[in-house]
Amino acid sequence: MRRWRALLLAASVALAPALPATAQQAMINADAWSAYKAKFLDPSGRIVDNGNGNISHSEGQGYGLLLAYLSASPADFEQIWYFTRTELLLRDDGLAVWKWDPNVKPHVADTNNATDGDMLIAYALALAGTAWKREDYILAASRMAQALLAETVGSSQGRTLLMPGTEGFTGSDRDDGPVVNPSYWIYEAIPVMAALAPSDAWQKLSNDGVELLKTMQFGPRKLPAEWVSLHDKPRPAEGFDAEFGYNAIRIPLYLARGGITDKALLIRLQKGMSQDGVPATIDLTTGRPKTVLSDPGYRIVNDVVACVVDGTRLPSSALQFAPALYYPSTLQLLGLAYIGEKHPECL
User: Fold this and answer.
1) Rounded CA gap, 27 and 21, in Å?
2) With contact defined as beta carbons under 8 Å apart, do 249 and 199 qualify?
């Protein structure tokens, strides 16, 4: 117990410079958050992925916690955290299982983690714990950050990598390993992880993530694959579609929210992932779009890039929030919160 109290004190002190000074100011308006909750938040506290068989997953719980924090909604945050800690934090190493399925029993069939979900959860807990003076949240965040550092931050060929899960992605697990997912690097969260679990590895993880993105230029559109083998030189991983997929759409948003405004990188990603200005999933081999994604939640990623690169104001469609599917609705709120805080001139 003494060790955790010392850890809590150290984390509380270290978090101060890593977190925003305006931590308690709502960045998402009440009407938008109410609409999101009505559509995706089950009374049990689980965020429902209605585009994926109504399952819940650690990513969704992490996003829900982050959005509840950005909405300055402690009661909703606690509701989501209750489900997360009782239904997903089942592993011995302090990380969350990645998937909870209401249609099967037991609801958890695969106990592997998803590292981006764990990082989102720890990040949101640290933000909320600091803003609302909840030591239990900061302590839980510290435990998860230490587990992430111990179990998922690795190295290969001089690079520091974020493994997508604790099992199945290393060179020992597969012939083309290590395999990474570039959309799992949550750049805004990494400095907070460093405050919670101090290590020089976190800054290198962030730097190497950006440098890897610069080298991941596959196919005619020069885009990263969703799953990338780093066994030799970066290439699309075996056993996965060679595509710029749904998860990859959020990469430019993560870069912008993390304060990484490399214009050349952002413009290459924006142009490569768009068909007539609209985001799409892309077949990397042919360069052809597979699915054009016209939901405002997908389009806002390009809108954020345009704002960051040349100050273009968001179109009125981006400001109107009418949630339909969990994933783009989440991206839209994250995009609006970012623009409202960092680039109000684009509203």
Assistant:
1) 13
2) no
User: What angle do helix axes 326-342 and 30-40 make, rounded to 10 degrees?
Assistant: 160
The pair phi, psi for residue 169, each rounded to 5°, is: -125, -5
Q: Which of 116, 151, 208, 243 is catalytic?
A: 116
Tell me if residue 59 is catalytic.
yes
Which listed residue (49, 59, 76, 188) is catalytic? 59
**Given a cut of 70, is residue 9 above it in pLDDT?**
no
Residue 302 and residue 300: Cα distance in Å, rounded? 5
Q: Which bin fits 45, alpha (ψ -120 to 50), beta or left (φ > 0)?
A: left
Q: What is the pTM of this model?
A: 0.96
In 172-273, where does DSSP find H-type helix? 190-196, 201-215, 251-257, 263-272
CATH code: domain of residue 118: 1.50.10.10
| Catalytic (active site) residue 116 | yes
Confidence label for 21 from pLDDT (cuts 50, 70 and 90)? very low
Rounded to 10 degrees, the C-alpha dihedral 261/264/268/274 comes to: 60
What pLDDT, in 10s, does the model give residues 289-330?
A: 999 999 999 999 999 999 999 999 999 999 999 999 999 999
Q: Are 267 and 309 within 8 A, CB to CB? A: yes
CA angle in degrees (0–180, nearest 5) for 75-78-80:
110
50: domain range?
Answer: 2-346
Q: Are 289 and 282 in contact (CB under 8 A)?
A: yes
State the average pLDDT over residues 112-138: 98
Tokens of 134: 């909840």
Domain count, the chain: 1
